[in-house]
Amino acid sequence: MKRHLPLLASLAALAFAAPAGAQTMKPGLWEATNKLGGSPEMDQAMAQMQQQMANMPPAQRKQMEEMMAKQGMSVSGAAKGGMVMKMCITQDMADRQQLPIQQPGNCTTTTSDKSSTGMKLTFSCTNPPSSGEGQFTFTGDTAYTMAMKINSGGQGTPKTTTVNTSAKWLNSDCGAIKPMAVQKK
Predict the structure, then answer these.
(1) Burial level of 124, CB count in 10 A (0-12/13-18/19+)?
(2) Residues 3/155, Cβ–Cβ less than 8 Å
(3) Cα(69)–Cα(59) distance, rounded to whole angstroms?
(4) DSSP string, 43-106
(5) Cβ neighbours for 129, distance < 8 A, ≥ 6 positions apart
(6) CA distance 58 to 66
(7) Which letter, b or e, does each residue of 54-90 get, where b requires 16 or more Cβ atoms within 10 Å of its Cβ?
(8) Structural domain boundaries in the chain
(9) Cis link prior to 128 (omega < 30° from 0)?
(10) Are 102 and 180 a contacting pair, CB within 8 Å?
(11) What is the model's pTM?
């Protein structure tokens, strides 16, 4: 299960963050509900991750939540196979229309067909090795939906994962959620 956690976290973060390049996002606290699927293995890994989080002793769960908060994330369970993420978008991030995820040079992202109501995105990453494409539909600067297909080569076996996301702006105050450090363009 532990080998799936970095991939799941990366996929969920990419799914949440990707739209910033095409549409101005309102700064503040955002919430994205991500539904990952596409293979029995991914469905099982997601269910196991949620079960492990639910079964953690309170002190261990708190430690995990604090660690994630330092990275600008708050993750909680959603419907079966889903994950809810909260992230903080600063005014600077919104102004620069930059992805609010850490990308240490391991991913290349290309957007196309940008409009005020949507865009397409393709990406390729070396760590973890993956590639994919997605379609985003915006509802102004406070909501979007996304459907993404991700190809990865985990354990030497090619896998395809789907991510369907529904995101919404919650509040201008991020509260305890700290923004992620991002590379300036």
Answers:
(1) middle
(2) yes
(3) 15
(4) HHHHHHHHHHHHHS-HHHHHHHHHHHHHTT-EEEE-STTEEEEEEEE-HHHHHHT--SS---S-
(5) 152, 153
(6) 12
(7) eeeeeeeeeeebeeeeeebbbbeeeeebbbebbbbbb
(8) 4-168
(9) yes
(10) yes
(11) 0.72
Structure tokens at 149: 């297909």
Token pair of 35, please?
């539904």
In the chain, what is the straight-line distance between the N-terminal and C-terminal CA atoms, in Å? 35
Sheet holding 129-138, edge to edge: 74-77, 82-89, 28-37, 159-171, 143-152, 129-138, 118-126, 107-112
**Can you give the pLDDT of all 185 residues of the chain as single tens digits?**
444 444 555 555 555 555 444 467 889 998 888 887 776 776 777 777 777 777 889 898 888 777 776 665 666 655 555 677 888 888 888 777 654 544 445 778 888 887 778 888 888 888 777 888 988 888 888 998 889 898 887 666 788 888 888 889 999 998 888 886 655 54
Q: Which of 146, 94, 91, 93 is nearest to 118 (CA)?
A: 146
CA distances for 174 relative to 41, 56, 74, 85, angstroms: 34, 26, 11, 13
Residue 70 tokens, joined: 């330092």
Distance, CA of 170 to chain centre: 16
CB 139 within 8 A of CB 129: no
